[in-house]
Design a protein that fits this description.
The chain is α/β, with parallel strands linked by helices. It has 13 helices and 21 strands. β10 and β11 form a beta hairpin. The longest helix is centred in the last third of the chain and has 21 residues.
Length: 394
């Protein structure tokens, strides 16, 4: 009886946190972005798949939540948090696919809110992410257990309350057995998203919580369960791995990619290095199946200002179904950069499309900000042009 009582109290507290404490979730000021989003960009964007045998996916790198970002999102007048402006300029890119999936590298809703080294962001952060066009967030990363049991469970509860899909961390064994992957389905194409991390900074999950670790036996059992219960046309793994701040993948990343391929998981998207790493699309041969690996998409938004951590890329992937199964129709990347600036004494973090702003220096109030965008884009293009295989910029 006590367990049921406390569970009910927890649910009420989560709803209070989302709906009452952060009032901007329901009472934000009307803006041009609000009217655009009400038109449902997912349905109107030309890039979203209109073919009855295709589905398009957009993958995003690291959603970080440093203390400077939290402070910048705070509105003193309403005493609430609002992150909408961060995503305003990048929303059309995020909506340019049937489904958009990103890496949430913070916990949510545990007060006091905090940045590095143990992250907790307001629920308003997730609300703004959803509003920008993101459908699914993977939650297994080295910061999953930063706020222990409360952080794992509150993050899941808040995402559920916002109807944002998620996978990678689970409240208990039952929830994982019921939903071992997040399932995306459109045009008779069923895709299962699975998510793993190399570790959680030495903080293990508290029972009965589960964090998906990069362990061969665990992954093999999960893939078997997904194939048995879900029967997907394609399994895609979103993996937290690699060396931070390194431009190239290490040997361990390559070994893990080969292991996933041995299980029939031929598409792997990487995160954690906080910088861009190469992307490889290999066609089907007589000996090997088609495969795609993105070793790291870099930071999507963060307070990390050290070059080249100040930007990243989104990856657009189109899958097509035929009598022979599901195969990759096209794949490409789009560079993004985080613009940190002040206006009327307040700090802002705007995610910019590099292509939209690299020829517009007059947009920037400080020339050094424009120079940083150009520096990032030059380095990213040189790195990816040299090392990518069959994945080009769009």
């Amino acid at each position: 009886m006590k367990a049921i009582f406390f569970k009910l109290i927890f649910i009420v507290l989560v709803q209070w946190t989302v709906e009452s404490q952060n009032t901007e979730l329901t009472t934000t000021k009307t803006s041009q972005l609000d009217s655009v989003l009400k038109e449902n960009l997912k349905q109107k964007t030309l890039g979203a798949s209109g073919d009855s045998s295709e589905v398009s996916l957009l993958f995003i790198g690291d959603f970080m939540g440093h203390l400077d970002q939290i402070n910048a999102a705070y509105d003193k007048a309403s005493r609430s948090y609002n992150y909408d402006s961060t995503f305003k300029k990048i929303t059309p890119i995020l909506s340019d696919a049937d489904f958009t999936i990103g890496n949430l590298e913070v916990t949510l809703g545990v007060m006091p809110y905090s940045g590095y080294p143990q992250f907790s962001s307001p629920p308003a952060y997730a609300a703004a992410i959803k509003k920008s066009g993101v459908d699914v967030l993977v939650t297994a990363n080295n910061h999953s257990c930063d706020k222990r049991k409360k952080g794992v469970e509150r993050t899941i509860a808040i995402l559920d309350s916002l109807r944002v899909g998620h996978t990678g961390t689970f409240v208990n064994t039952k929830s994982k057995k019921t939903s071992p992957a997040y399932v995306i389905e459109k045009n008779n194409i069923k895709i299962a998203i699975i998510n793993y991390t190399y570790g959680t900074n030495g903080i293990p999950p508290n029972s009965p919580n589960i964090v998906n670790y990069l362990e061969k036996e665990r992954i093999s059992k999960d893939v078997d369960a997904v194939n048995t219960l879900i029967k997907p046309d394609q399994i895609i793994a979103f993996v937290h791995w690699g060396d931070q701040y390194k431009d190239l993948p290490n040997t361990t990343q390559k070994k893990w990619f080969n292991y996933f391929k041995s299980l029939g998981v031929n598409i792997v998207i990487g995160a954690h290095p906080h910088v861009l790493q190469p992307m490889e699309w290999h066609s089907k041969t007589a000996l090997n199946n088609e495969s795609l690996v993105v070793y790291s998409l870099g930071n999507f938004v963060s307070h990390q200002r050290t070059f080249p951590r100040d930007g990243g890329a989104v990856l657009k992937l189109s899958l097509k179904k035929s009598d022979d199964g599901v195969e990759i129709k096209s794949v490409g990347y789009h560079l993004t950069w985080v613009h940190e600036f002040r206006s009327e004494g307040k700090k802002y973090y705007d995610i910019l499309s590099v292509q939209d702003f690299e020829e517009n220096p007059s947009y920037f109030s400080r020339k050094k900000d424009y120079n940083k965008l150009v520096q990032f884009s030059k380095h990213a293009r040189e790195l990816l042009l040299k090392n990518n295989i069959n994945v080009e910029e769009y």
